[in-house]
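Narrative progress, year one. The postdoctoral researcher (J.K.) led the effort to move from monomer predictions toward full complexes, under supervision of the PI. The following entry was the first complex the group processed end to end, covering 698 residues in total.
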Amino acid sequence: MRRLSTLALMAALPLGAVATPALSGEITWWAPEFGEERAAELVRRFEEAHPDIQVNMEPVVTNGLQNRILVALRSGNTPDLIDVANGWNIPFAATGGLLPLEEVLAEKNIPLDDFLPAALETATYEDTLYGLPFRAEAHALIYNKAAYREAGLDPDSPPETWAEFVEASKALTRTTESGVEQYGFGIAGGGEVSNTIFRSLPFIWMNGGNIISTDLSEVGLDSPESIEAVDFYTSMLTEHGVAPPSTLENDGTALRRLFIAGTIAQYQSGQFDLASIHQENPDLEVGTALLPHPEGKERAAILGGWNFVIPEAAPNKEDAATFLAFLAEPENMGYYTDTFPARESAMELERFQDPELGSFREMLKYARQQPPSANWVQITQIYFDYVQEALLGSMSAEEAMTEAAAEIEPLLGQ
Amino acid sequence: MRIPKRFQGIMFVLPALFVLAMLVFYPIVYTVVLSVTDPAGNYVGLENFRSMIDARLTARAFWNTLIYVGFSIIFQVLIGTAVGILLNNEFWGRGAVRALIVVPWVIPGIVAATTWAWMFHTEFGIINYMAQSAHVIDQPVGWLTNPDTVLPALITVNVWKMFPFVAIMVLAGLQAIPNDLYEAARIDGARKHHEILYVTLPHLRPVLMSITLLLAIWGLNAITIIYAMTKGGPANRSLITPIQIFRHAFEFFRFNEAAALSVMFFGATALLMTLYIRIYAEKD
């Protein structure tokens, strides 16, 4: 019998180990692994200044991260501070698992008026702030200057309007002197759904349309403006043939590779692509420009970025707030971000003055958040399926978007 | 304490049964419970089932699953058996070939699928590059983006991945066939193809039957290859039911609908397997 109880004890041991409560003076931080080195450096600096607080930084992979955080928030077994993509912030807040931050931030003297308003909106749910943005970015147009010259275009004045852009893309679609089949404009039509959303939804917005309205009450995908914009996007492949035949399997990474290989002359992406383009093809003359807009209308972009959140169930909220205040200091935020910081004062740092970044910085002014619908993933999946139908040529943009709208409609009321 | 003899056996297996019940029955029961409730846990009857049956993609996904698994099994068994029989012969370097042949099976599915996705890529893919260099095709083919080629391409990868398993099992089965049967056949004047047809294959039948069953079960539940290569695209032309379940559960967080679809899929799979075993058992 004694042996049995020992056995039972041993079996229960791992459970006990998992449930150990965090000691005060210790916090756990989930940070995406792509920023691991900088995160570790920040932790080092913080611990130097606050010897009584120990930060356990756990690098997490972004694949499946949203789900992992959601499970953590629902189970109540959470770290003290988490980096979340800004599109997840409101859905997480809606579960009731996040700590409201306004009071915390006021106590730490963090001026919210220094933050990009659109970035703060991604963290605001029912008029309460549930996250602190630290990274913000928007897509711009990346183009090959040499290809522009060879096609008889001026590399210093990239196209402004949609009509000019289509003409330029047609001119860029040609067999080059070195025998490469070059395509004018690479669009995304495959991979993760978000790749296509980030590259096509801005065109819909510019034209005055939407997938669903900002107040989440209406589907706008079957409006003439939305249909026209989707047609503008998909016709790059179906009508003009300026997008490569591989469009339906291309995501952001594939587009970057095609650009580096010289197969496509223009594509949309964030500034994070620039480093690997320069590294893998140093001879490529990269130009960046604002996204083209419809004649007489404003440009638009999706605001991408990341926010810090503190879970309601965090074992050590007090020290987490201290660490959050440290990370929110302009120089730390400017050091940590992969793209731009979400604070205006951090924008002044040397690192963000590179002229090549100018277009991306300018596009931030036009950036809006994606509709904070709880069903957004499902809605965008439906939209994406029908964009693919249009790209396949099995439906016109109008037919595809009309059907997509009908399918999205029942998801609104939920 | 003395335990009556007839209970002793049960006492011994009880811990194992308990673990089994927790690991197997609990998830099944929980899935069924999820399938008839809403996210708040209220009983909703067959509502989730109805909404999944009405969903535009359910029928297409199920049909794709049948095609994908059916053709995969046919070619896995055909090629696997042929390779198994070949490898049973004596030839120089047989050990090396036997070792090499299992490579596809041993490579993690996600690695293999990602590599194949790049090989099939319209622009960078080595397959198009070789076919164009050899003038088999003059325009690059969108293997994974053309609705007509996407399923065959995925089936090819699936066959490549699993045929070594069939070959190994067949090889093991072949070693169990007594040599005197072949000798007897040869004395009766049988040629090589007669031997295969009348001695080898009949003796392999039990092995092949279990293999087919395993392949069917694994194939119906596998999502790695398709999820990594096309995610069910283009426009759901390669969507299979397991991926649809995955999407509903872990991308849309609609666990109840996903559970309803799982239950239906489980029913359909169970029915297919039962039929298969019945038909086979009757023949024997």
